[in-house]
Queue: 3 jobs
Job 1
Amino acid sequence: MVVRVLIWNLLDSEATIEQLREGVTELEPPSEWIWNDATERFGVIVFGDELPEALGWAQDLIGADPDVYEEFDVI
């Protein structure tokens, strides 16, 4: 299994965490959206081989590729 962590820094984005929080769709567990209000960062932890379509919506709203994209193999 593969786990991916994608994080966007929203400091330079017109998108807000509140906009993203209101618009995200539910992901197939155990994948989850994540955010940190204090650092204005938004992201997702995705379990599985495919990235969910909802990532495209978030990326379009933010207007940039993720600042962090890490991929891990799970044993």
Job 2
Amino acid sequence: MTELTRPSVRPANPHFSSGPCAKRPGYDLQALSSATLGRSHRSAEGKAKLRRATEMSRIVLGVPEDYLVGIVPASDTGAFEMALWSLLGARGVDVLAWESFGKGWVTDIVKQLKIEDVRVLEADYGELPDLGQVDVSRDVVFTWNGTTSGVRVPDGDWIAPDRQGLTICDATSAAFAQRLDWPRLDVVTYSWQKVLGGEAQHGMLILSPRAVERLESYTPPWPLPKIFRLTKGGKVISGVFDGATINTPSMLCVEDYLDALAWAQRVGGLDGLIARADTNAGRLAEWVERTPWVGFLASAPETRSNTSVCLKIEDPEVACLPAEAQAAFAKKLAARLDAEGVAKDIGSYRDAPPGLRIWTGATVEASDIDALTPWLDWAFAVTKSELVEAA
């Protein structure tokens, strides 16, 4: 293939978006034919479906039996906000931020909740903060996998098992693709539309016994909206974790999530899902290693995400351009791939450094990653040739 020759093989599925993510292989709307539609979500059938969703989530993720698993409103954001507003303020807070969403949690904690005793541990895109600086006598707020930087924590070893504070973890692009260290996590949130490719608007909130104890022994000084209230009369509202959601869920989305969970079990459960994501990320890494014009935004291999892979353009003639010109180049490259119908929604996140962001989670097929990489080379070559001609 010469530099500007258009590749002949296209990905069968061009959906590499980091959220909502690709539907499972073989997905068909007929899978939703048993949805409990036109019925109350509080009917016996509706509650049974919701309960089944939490039970299957527990099984696939390996959530300990003494942790509570609930469905809450407003996707991962709603679940995480619920945790922050309900639990913080009892002690000082360490919040980690190395990408867009972590920085958003900093804003909520400092400017909205206005907690005074806050330490913000930050790092640039592509790096992790110094995890050794985290003080687990305080509450700790962090993302497990930084979706907009492609940087994840390598493990949970930096969290002391005998901690005094709570660990509150946004795991939305890690759950079902990375092994979460449950004994070291007190609150975990995620959304359906990430690794399993479910539909959006619903979040999952998982609470350890330590988190429940905090809820039942501490009342925050600020008012809580109804959709954030997890206690009544000083006790956790158990129904939230037993199929009685705080507000009305979409039973069509619930059916879609159940279908995704059933597929997860068919491919080997958590081990199978992690293996698929690792394979996909590995195929992309092999291409990056042999391709001089591109590199990982995540500098350390052990912190590179196996779901949201963020890439930067390292070609000297592009990398030397002003930041605005680099961003324009990356957008043009991504737009060209979109127009060709081979890669949808792979531009870097708006707040992140310019580049590409390619989802390699379990619902993506490795064969589609293999078909994508020649198109990446082609799109770069064409876009660069236009840059040279315009110079």
Job 3
Amino acid sequence: MMLNRTLAPDFQAIDHISLIEPGHTQLPNGCKVYWFNSGDQDLLRIELIFGNLRFDPTKPLLNMAVNTMLTEGTSTLSATQIADKIDYYGAFLQAEYGYDNSQLTLYSLNRHLEHTLPVIKDILTDSQFPEKELDTYIRNQQQKLQVSLQKNDILARRAFNRAVYGDSIYGLSADAVHYQQLQRADMLAHFKQMYQPANCTLVIAGKADEASLKQIIDAFSDWQNAAEPADVSQQLIEPATEHFYFTEKPEALQSAIRMGLPMVNRTHPDFPALQVLNTVLGGYFGSRLMANIREDKGYTYGIGSGISSLKYGSAFFIATEVGADVCRSAVEEIEKEISLLKTEPISEEELSLVRNYMLGSLLGSLENVFSHADKFKNVYFSGLNYDYYTRYTEIVKSVTADELLSLANQYWNFDEFYKVIVGKY
């Protein structure tokens, strides 16, 4: 039978999304271990995740700098030797910094764990942050910062985060002087306090068979804690009192716009429905902001909105860069779209489209065992469990236009938005 290409394929509603449940144990040293065993490929992703130490405004870059420089050398291995050992066995090693947690991630073939795990163990117990590498890090970061500060969108994001999150770690805008303040002695002390097993969650994904798990657990079972427990609490967030920030750049061809306000995070019951509302406004390519400001007005190549859910705070934001001569008009159109969502119910046709997009995106994101581990981390580090995803999918499928109208009026007061403009206005 010939395929009739004039007919769209039948639509299949997504009824249920299944997630792989992890195995779990806790080592005597306090290290929590979770594993996801799936697939036949001889590959593992091993993530050692640490809660960042309480933010110290007098030494604001310690969490980031210590994590970034973990692989720069130990007492017995230089940075080059670490890289060579990992590369020789076809493995991949990466240090990743986040606002709430920092991690060291290893991708390794199962059969090479006996060679790659000792390198990780050495890094986590004996990182030295050599002066030469520290000087290079400081110099490189200052140069990158100098380039970044020429970009309007970077300046707008920095100003917005500082306004919404205040002097907390989320609001940090690093300056060149902050890098210059980094001292090896401070980094060593920070490392010993933070990178210890009681402050570590070990997440293993891939072919996590019994033999491989034993190798990994044996490798970290004799890892010792420091004398003092890590303080990973964070200070309260105090947003700024000023709500409008304009940095004029007379020669700018484009103006960066970033606006929004503090929002509830993933732990709040309203969060899933707010995600639906956000998607309608600016959360996907077919959103209202894209249809108006890109497709209809031609003010920008792209505009979007989102909700950043962090452990101790959250923010709703809208971000774009528009032609400098239409910046004021773009802001007016953004306000208009928000006002419409507060006064007119979303049509069932549009709401159905958004529901299908969101559920399809969630389902599509579960492409492999690593994706399932990522979904687990989202809820685990928010203090939630898999019930969150059940509730999330049910709310996405069932939330009504009237409920979204009510939420828009409850959470989006445009007069209270923090508005940042860099360029011309």
